[in-house]
Amino acid sequence: xxxxxxxxxxxxxxxxxxxxxxxxxxxxxxxxxxxxxxxxxxxxxxxxxxxxxxxxxxxxxxxxx
Length: 65
Fold this sequence. Notes:
By secondary structure, this protein is of the alpha+beta class. It has one domain. The protein contains two helices and three strands; from the N terminus they run H-E-E-E-H. Strands 1-2-3 form a three-stranded antiparallel beta sheet. It is elongated and about 40 Å long. The chain starts with a helix and ends with a helix.
């Protein structure tokens, strides 16, 4: 099976899910929480919505530095 076939197969499985787990980490450890999937692209990019002032956003921004 080629990489593209594997990617398409994974998309076929995941597209039926309404939620995904978002995992972040901070100095306090790993934190996982379910998030509603707003959109899932063919390339497996998932869009999740949250409040801009949430702890999730703070943890993600901190990890990018």
